[in-house]
Amino acid sequence: MRYVMVQIPNKPASTMPPAPRPVPTSADVARLAGVSRATVSYVLNNTSAVRISEPTRRRVREAARELGYVPHAAARTLRAGHSRMVLMPTLPVPAGPLYSRFVHDFQGAMSRLDYTVVQYGASGVGGDEAARAWAELRPVAVLVPGTGIGPEGVAILKRSGARAVVTLGPEAVEGAHAMLLDQADVGRGAAGHLHARGRRRIGVVVPEEPGMELFSAPRLAGAREALRGADATVTELPLAYTEEAADALAARWRGLGLDAVFGYNDEYAMLLLRALRDAGLRVPEDVAVIGADDLLLGRLLRPRLSTVRITLPLGRELASLVDRAVRNPAAAPESHALFSVAVVHRDSS
Amino acid sequence: MRYVMVQIPNKPASTMPPAPRPVPTSADVARLAGVSRATVSYVLNNTSAVRISEPTRRRVREAARELGYVPHAAARTLRAGHSRMVLMPTLPVPAGPLYSRFVHDFQGAMSRLDYTVVQYGASGVGGDEAARAWAELRPVAVLVPGTGIGPEGVAILKRSGARAVVTLGPEAVEGAHAMLLDQADVGRGAAGHLHARGRRRIGVVVPEEPGMELFSAPRLAGAREALRGADATVTELPLAYTEEAADALAARWRGLGLDAVFGYNDEYAMLLLRALRDAGLRVPEDVAVIGADDLLLGRLLRPRLSTVRITLPLGRELASLVDRAVRNPAAAPESHALFSVAVVHRDSS
């Protein structure tokens, strides 16, 4: 192994900063354009209810440009009572490929409907405390992944002017629209498949990285549930996402007496599969392996990785639900089960 | 291949929504608690400058809770003139694993410094237009990845009250702090390595997915630049991230007469490597392959994938720069080259 370091030289700081100037206000724009503040507001917010001549509109726009005046979204929201902002709290873990793609698509779809999606950084607070922090931004809609909100949180958001709250979780929450999405289904599907393939001593990988329990706990619970009453055992296998950890688990594999493993997702499954084979175990003869997410990379592996394919709601379907809910805030909450899981049987199980 | 569909039944919508209530204001809280609006504001914003008795504070808090009153971040910002919000525009493509991890770490580090990171959805606008949209949220600091801002955009943000603008791109922008990070270095490193390994006819994968040119164009340019004047050719290889596209490219590989390929990143490199081997080509004997990102999965591959390791700035280093800049907005812009690339030579090249 060889490392070639390419170092980029430090560039000097370019120039001194300009002397701080006061932030221009709409009053400054009004003064420069020789109009009232109300006129500035009408022009810059494109209000059509008031007749203002084109030359005046032009003068206001030019004055705003000259001063570098930008309307304040906050002030605008205060006046209008609602924004076009859709707030989404971020997950407590780095987004995986499936979720990144989903957020990207949802954002694009909302943007085409003239909303802006804002992902709010998890600040370590949860429950109603979190709902209160989101409410401070006065979003017109909130999309909450996971189990991060209860009925009181929904009520807090609605009282603060949110017209729609949509949850992406295992159960509907009172007052909110629900996209039902239960991680336990993934574990159920994987364990059910391994059992159907004749395996009886089944390991379930549980990532050790902090925050992952949001997904791993229900996946493990789903696997246990699927095998309850069946002639099979479920063994929890904590695993960090490193080659060393996978090698260590593979080294003590024969002592565990397992004949199958659900790898949590494709990435952990690929990591463990490689370590098991390096330790002399045959896949699937000695150990059947299944992942989840149906990543392209799992299909490239030999043996091809079996997986649980997870279909998240389409960005544009979810966007249209949010838009409908915003335009009709009094409508009864909708509950959709667009999330589905399907076992894809390949060569590793 | 076998698919087992696990379908989740639709649950009925739980209850009718509560009748819409007016959004409670601080005046409502003041009325219920029997105090002035100023007192409500002092208590709920934890102002210590004013002496207010503990029983009064408790009365205000209880009234706020009873009414479900949440202070309005916008109103607070209007009063205070600045927020604790750090805005980051999202990338125009789904975040890859490296970037997801970086955002997650940065967010955690800012959160420990009592800021909230908000990722602003790309809305299809760019340049000063985008800066104006971000400015409307009145962030205290803005972190711009890529080349999405110029000196005028920086000025717009500063005039709107942003105390710090930090860019994560190839060049410093006037008025902004810079974390220098040039994607061309990745291409330079990869092409330089392949040339040093004796390869002369080098293909460079360019992903066909929309938005990827933000990264792929400078990587290709860097590869070309590294080989300028050398006895080597660079061939652009458009490739979609599908097995079919990779197989099609592999099928016409011999006609291209290439002896090496820089796969854009590890994921495209792994996809192409598999297709090349399935088409009967030997790696690295017939074709040397190198990726970028140093994903764990590339290390698991046989032959082990050579790669360009990219080190992004640490979340906490960047967070401390942002915090320093916010607290001292008049300081001269800093320029840091924390981003570095290192070629990791394994078995595929």
Automatic annotation (TrEMBL), chains A, B:
GO molecular function, a single term: DNA binding
Tagged with keyword NADP: no
SUPFAM superfamilies from the UniProt entry: lambda repressor-like DNA-binding domains, Periplasmic binding protein-like I
Matches recorded under Gene3D superfamilies: 3.40.50.2300, lambda repressor-like DNA-binding domains
Domain of life: Bacteria
The HTH lacI-type domain, residue ranges: 24-80
SMART domains tied to this protein: HTH_LACI (SM00354)
A Pfam family matched in the record: LacI
InterPro entries for this protein: HTH_LacI, LacI/GalR-like_sensor, Lambda_DNA-bd_dom_sf, Peripla_BP_I
Keywords of the record: DNA-binding, Transcription, Transcription regulation
Full protein name: DNA-binding LacI/PurR family transcriptional regulator
Native source organism of the sequence: Streptomyces achromogenes
